Amino acid sequence: MVEKRGAALWLTHLGLIVGLFFIFFPIWLAFVASTISQPEIVRPPMPLLPGDRFLENYSKALVSGINAPVARMLFNSAVMALGIAFGKIAISLLSAFAIVYFRFPGRQLFFWLIFLTLMLPVEVRIVPTYEVAAQFGMLNSYSGLIFPLIASATATFLFRQFFLTVPDELAEAARVDGARPMRFFWDILLPMSRTNIAALFVILFIYGWNQYLWPLLITTDPSMNTIVMGIKQMFPSGDDTADWPVIMATSLLAMLPPILVVIGMQRLFIRGLVESEK
Amino acid sequence: MEKRVRFKGYLLPICLVMPQIVITAVFFFYPAGQAIWQSLFIPDPFGFSAQFVGLGNFEFLLSDPFYRASFITTAIFSILVTAVSMGVALFLAVLADRLIKGSGTYRTLLIWPYAVAPAVAGVLWLFMFNTRVGVVTWYLGVLGYDWNHVLNPGEAMGLVVLASSWGRISYNFLFFLAGLQAIPRSVIEAAAIDGAHFWTRFRTIVFPLLSPTTFFLLVVNVVYAFFETFGVVHTITAGGPQQATTILVYKVYSDGFVGQDLGSSAAQSVILLIIVSVLTVIQFRYIERRVHY
After folding, report:
1. Mutate to test the interface with B, among A124, A188, A248 (most CBs of B within 10 A)
2. How many other C-beta atoms lie within 10 A of the C-beta of residue A37?
3. What is the ipTM of this complex?
4. Which CATH architecture has domain A66-277?
5. Would you call B16 an interface residue with chain A, using a CB distance cutoff of 8 Å?
6. Hey, CA dihedral for B157, B158, B163, B165, is it positive or negative?
7. pLDDT digits (tens, 9 = 90+) for A233-278
């Protein structure tokens, strides 16, 4: 009875549509700019409907780009995002398994060491972390993009919480049947964690893809730039006019993969978001 | 909570935690320790030696008007980002919650800006408000308003706040909508039968029942505004004009990498470390409570 009908219902829809308009507008404008020519943009106001240069601008961006081909930057981003997502999941699964299913010296200490990393986002410790990466010769390399961002307390906690809800009888049965710990891990625990792993993967993929500061420091060679940080590098220094159609095409290419992941895996995404914040 | 059933062995579990411990030690604890250590020294200009200054870097920082200004800038910035993104999200969530049909569709349409990186959001908003080619700038000009965030500190702050809030609305909307849908319908209907109008119901029933979600989002959004908006600031204003948008995280970067002032940058890192720790503790204490209830 508190739901609205008639005029009030339409007002509700109207409010939401106005909200949607404001959220969509920047992306629509970027899309339009990526389909028209530079002269149309530098003589404002630019048109608000798409032009006919879609293929031309996107192929120019992908093949030649400005400092490096955008196709190359997309590849770098994919390696980084997948590396971070799989790496975090792998090391977190193993450490959560050890912490939950074993009692060993130093267990509490390790648990707290991992817990403390929650408090150390990379933005806070950039200079010394950069120095470490440089000492290891990790500048301009995929391992430099991936490893420093791979340790994650959040993922370890998520798996720990989940393992604690797995009935003890399963481990008991496995032990009685003579299964070794790793056998139990592979054949029982891992298949049971499938949904959690997938949900976390969605969140971590977006996290990795959208990194900005770290790739900015670690990759000085344009061919190692990730797409998200590479966009800014496409702006000319000084007073020259930026090549807006190509930059906007690159921006759209940069946001497409994570958006597809969110929309395609919406249920898992929401689950992952809620779980990883708990 | 502990497991009753455990596997035996010491070596295996230690091998299992090692990958994470090693990475954590090398890329988290060692650099954090370095930051604390370096914050106590002033390196000479050639990097050959360093002079121990105790808390001198901190004293200098806290008396430095630029650093204090950066603190205030960060406070204003994070309050505005939190208020704008949560306000808009709550408004949209309340509207979507009123619908019997279709709230799922709106949710799908609203969640995906979450996936847009802050740095990309910065480029999109920079394009709209660009002083030479920006569409919004041009229409504002037609209305007689001369927009120039390159020169005007207030406008620069406004633009950075808008771009930072924009992508964040999705996230807040998702949590607000879930919170609203968890409120029992019967409570709201009882109030409606007693003659409470929409606004009264919202003020006296819905909003108080929503407060755990609101508080959680407050903390999370402040953390976001502090630490994850570097990309927005770097793409749109690079901290300017006259440091008007130099938030703390940006200052660590510009002093450490651009200015090469390592002692000061390390001391700033340590101060940020303390801020994150406090925020994390607040978040955890609160979440502990939420789990137990």
Report:
1. A124
2. 14
3. 0.89
4. Orthogonal Bundle (1.10)
5. yes
6. positive
7. 888 876 678 889 999 999 999 999 999 998 888 888 887 777 766 5
